Automatic annotation (TrEMBL):
It comes from Vibrio harveyi (Beneckea harveyi). This is Putative molybdopterin binding domain protein. It holds the Pfam family MoCF_biosynth. Residues 4-171 form the MoaB/Mog domain. Transmembrane segments: none annotated. It comes from the Bacteria. SUPFAM superfamilies: Molybdenum cofactor biosynthesis proteins.
Length: 227
């Protein structure tokens, strides 16, 4: 199974903000057996988003898209997803009601621009965001399952932990949780350690990794957690 994450936004692409969401999701998914096979970043242009969605849809089983669900003109993820899937944007009345209720609780009128956040691809299924205005959603683009998520870290993490990860476990019940054991060595170079350890025959599902962590070399053993 191949799982990709796509981070969107000019501010991420140009380094104005550090993409902590991607690192956090990589760790969470790996622990549960859904290790990412690709991470990439794209700006806010609709044409670039469509191109990236299509490329990822042909080469992955699952794609997590982060960002671009806000109310402003540079938030283009929903519109680009609709074009990539060759479907229309439609008003999701349930999410509009959620937005109106949220603003009513605050005692302020909902800005007209927020209506955009209830316009989703017609084939989408809502992924709830109980603490924000950006509506997450799930849909197919070609044969890949796409999850579209907000860029706000607190909203993204809640959605990933409580909705996306449980959904993936239902879709792929055969996936096993993974673990990583680490040891730190001193005195041999990274290549010297690799030459010795790579001669070992590991059981299926296990692999070694190395990282220079001066003055140490970190050796990592990846494998199923229940073993």
């Amino acid at each position: 199974m191949k799982i990709a994450m796509l981070s969107t936004g000019e501010e991420v692409l140009h380094g104005d903000i550090v993409d902590t969401n991607a690192a956090w999701l990589s760790s969470l998914f790996y622990q549960h057996g859904f290790g990412l096979t690709k991470r990439s970043t794209v700006g806010d242009k609709q044409s670039s988003l469509i191109e990236e969605f299509l490329m990822l849809s042909f080469n992955n089983d699952v794609v997590i898209v982060n960002g671009g669900l806000g109310p402003t003109t540079d938030d283009m993820s929903a519109a680009a997803a609709a074009k990539a899937a060759d479907c229309k944007l439609v008003l999701f009345k349930d999410w509009l009601a959620h937005l109106e209720a949220m603003y009513a609780r605050r005692g302020i009128p909902m800005p007209d621009s927020n209506l955009k956040q209830a316009m989703l691809p017609e084939t989408a299924q809502i992924v709830d965001n109980p603490i924000g205005t950006a509506c997450g959603f799930k849909m197919l683009i070609n044969d890949a399952v796409f999850y579209f998520t907000p860029g706000v870290p607190s909203e993204f993490k809640l959605m990933a932990e409580t909705q996306i990860l449980p959904d993936l476990k239902k879709l792929f019940p055969e996936v096993e949780s993974a673990s990583c054991s680490r040891i730190y060595t001193f005195g041999l170079s990274e290549s010297g350690i690799s030459d010795k350890l790579d001669q070992m025959k590991l059981p299926p599902g296990y692999e070694l990794g190395y990282r220079s962590y001066l003055p140490f070399i970190e050796v990592k053993l990846f494998g199923p957690s229940q073993h």
